[in-house]
What does this fold into?
Amino acid sequence: MSVQPRMQSRLRPSVQPLDIGEPANDSQADNQADNQSDNQSARTMVSPLEQSMPIAAATAATLANGLTREECELFAKQLGRAPNALEWDLVSAMWSEHCSYKSSRAYLHELANSGARVIGGSGENAGALRIGKDRQGVEHALVFKMESHNHPSMIAPREGAATGVGGIMRDIFTMGARPIANLNALRFGSLRDCRTRALVQGVVEGIAFYGNCTGIPTIGGECDFDEDYDDNILVNAMTVGVARADSLFSSRASGVGNLVVYLGARTGRDGIDGARMASRSFAERSSVGSSKPQVQVGDPFAEKRLFEACLESMSKGLLLSVQDMGAAGLLSSSCEMAAKGGGGMRLDLSKVPLRNKGIGAAEIMLSESQERMLAIVDERSFAALREIFTRHRLDCCAIGELIADDALELFHGSDKGLDNGLDNGLDKGLELQARVPARLLSTHAPTLQRERKKRPRKPGKSSSKSSSNSSSSETLSSPPLPTSIPKPLEALGKLLSSPRLACKSWITEQYDSIIGGHSIGGGYGEAARVRIEATNEILAVTSDCTPRYCRNDARLGAKMAVAEAWRNLSATGATPLAITDNLNFGNPEDPYVMDDFAETIAGIAEACRFFELPVVSGNVSFYNETAGKSIPPTPVIGAVGIIEARDGELPLGMTTRDISQRLSPKLSPKLSPKLSPGLSSGFADFAERQLFLVGGQTLSPQESPQESPQVLPQVLPQELPQELPPKSPEELPEELPEPSLDDKLPPSLGASLYMQEIFGEREGAPPPIDLAREKLHGDFVREAIGEGLCYYAHDLSCGGLLAKCALLVMNASRARTSKVAPGIAPGIAPGVAPGVAPGIDFEPPPLPYREDSLAEASFWFGEEQARYLLCLNEHQAEILLARARAAKVPFSLIARLSERPLLTLSNGASISVAELIEGWGTMLARYMQSN
It folds into this structure.
């Protein structure tokens, strides 16, 4: 598991290339503890400490473990003596990139983590937000975080992914919150790579195994396939939990003399050196498997017992503070807890429960065996705590005590076997193996100011329409313009059967998404929803990132990731509250990677400030690189929002799955008589529904939403015929001539999925983004959903308008039948029974998009931002049209739902929904079942 030290610490950047970071608790008591530590150090030296290892002798080992010669010298200077071998092991783990964040810490302070709903200070295991109250008036909190387990999942997919899920769940219940939902964001390589199938199989199996066995539903996420991840897959896991706001737990150790208690499973040799392994690149593909011993092995049933035991102990007031043993195991949890409390710990390692004999002090401290916690307990509570954990068949051992000095003191003697007992206190006569200031290991790790350099752009025609807020000092190049543009429906089929858009039910149907009975709808690729039982609210949660954008413009791509999360939540009717981030990058020693990282932080910070979204938790994952090839910037944004309960009833937002269900949102009396029932009541209903586009024009960043003219015509529903008659041949327009292309690519097609999948073109500026318009349109859609003026809403992003319309009817069709496509396992890709699938009849594109084939492609497949697709009846449309005009929100009729299961363009070209499903619904399943 990836443990942040923590993102919320926001240590100020140093001004030197290498410096000591400032402590999290810079108080007078801390300074006194420093003085006491220095005096105590000279007083308690015993023989193991005298076996120090000089800098010259330690250099080879420490350089191999990731420390530079300069860092070795710095540590010895701060320690005031030459460290011994064990102390070198401790610092090389805690000063690794994975634990210390030494390359990213100088930038993370830019991310604001405060807000009206944010609970507590910085430095905790996860972020917490105030939400509603229960029937007794008790305020509750939402606790959530996202973390990576990339390196372990690349080495051992099943174990790496499973323990990634387990680790993030522990961060949540460590805060005293009960987990209610899991999500994941997965990035795999090209399906042409021979290893991809095995990696997908293992990762999905591991996530399903751990999440299903612990009884926590996996309700959403995303999965992408791209050759950029052939050598380094990404597995990002997110968990959300709920707790009483007045009962959240801290990881801050306090109270000299209180017991340090080990809780959970026993310690083995799995995962040793995992933190250092995750802090370096893979030398080559063939070297990946050699790191398998450094991957942890999880037990979800032990995890379930652990969080039930922890939550019971917390509810009875038996724990003072607690932290899970994640990266660097017992070492990180002990020194971080002590440093946060301004004191130290004295540990007897001979009392740590072990799975095997002969495990030494360094292995005990660095083991990353799973399902373990470290707690601070009042001695009077220890017996009751031990009874609870013994009942849950888990170890509960007092392994030390808190001391006033800023020191981590480690004692160890001869091996005493597997039975360590449950007594407390330190055995007499043990030798002191290591003594290091706790803050020197954790909060005083170096802060690096790594070199930054703008990434060179490939030569090409410069696009005058590229984003004016591009981060690059050079103009983003436009790709060569295609000379032959496929027909829209032909391109649609190719896009829907591409790995990025293809149905992911082969993955999602392995996850239990409904266990617990509170999941409502949504899921992979869109915001998912789950009911919060205590407060009768709906939680909407999503994870989003488009690496295609970030690859070409890191800052703009980061802003667009935040904006997409905003849109996904708004399309459910939820008010966005806050985000967590998982920042996945290559080697920070590469100046280009470091510049991408800095620009990404700037982009996230700008968007979050505008939307007033605090960044309450997060994770940084560097060194996603093999043989010198790094992944593109991949800043995954996990966002949460709340849909308030109305009149004692549960609210409903709209997602693709809801189109096939009967929706009866509570409406005001003046509206409900005019609104027909949900779409599942019969095919007459389909003919009454119309599809409207919110947004639909490209704005320059300087253009005000209130002053922007509308490009798409606004049409009252009453002005259209109630039925759409078939067009006769003489009414069909003549075939458009071949386009006379200029040297400019429409901005909405830059870095688009259309350009990548149809033409193999990956270069080009992403579409521009206007945060003011994003907020205006999101507020408009959210208000419409909240008042029951919308049957369905979805944001438009990957693949553009035509792809999202196709996904709407394909999801509806799949939900209406249990037929299975030939050769595919049940439930993977249901077919379409004749006469039950909805179709769509499209209106002609506006004139600006009918000038040539490339302009038409930009209408159907462009990825302009700040756009939504709404499904309305005539009365809803009339109301929203008036509101849109008043707010200057572009709002245009684009299509009608139809009883015929066809997608029909205005020129008469059509394709059956069944044909689209055959490619879209079966691609991934067929691939995973092939040899």
